[in-house]
Amino acid sequence: MASDRSVEVQIFGRIYHLKGDNSEHTREVARLVDEQMNHIADRIQTSDSYRVAVLTALHLADQLISERKDLESYRSKVDETSDRMLKLLEPDQLTEEPELSVN
Residue 96 forms beta bridges with which residues? Predict the structure, then answer.
């Protein structure tokens, strides 16, 4: 459930009052969006805030998809390694140790 406290943030020169459970997280998200919008606006040299917002959304979505693919690849590798390790620990895979004799 969202908090009733709003956080004032500035994104691309405009003030917004946002509500959320974690004000620090909300500020961090707003800061990231503001940085990306300003970076993109500087690169394409436009004052069309709608165009900048759409390009920013596309850029952030591209980053998200890339991170998700990386995470899925990492999870697959962890699962494969875990499966190999579990097979090594299965009782039927253990080799019998030779008997030791004391003379």
Answer: none
- 98: DSSP letter: P
The total domain count for the chain is 1
Q: What is the pLDDT of residues 53-79, one digit of tens each?
A: 999 999 999 999 999 999 999 999 999
Residue 100 inside a domain? The answer is no
| Cα atoms in the Cβ-side hemisphere of radius 13 Å centred on 62 | 7
Distance CA 2, CA 30 (A): 17
Q: Which domain holds residue 59?
A: 6-90
Q: Token digits for 30?
A: 């707003």
Q: Which amino acid is at 84?
A: R
pLDDT in tens, 26-35: 999 999 999 9
Let me know if residue 30 belongs to a domain.
yes
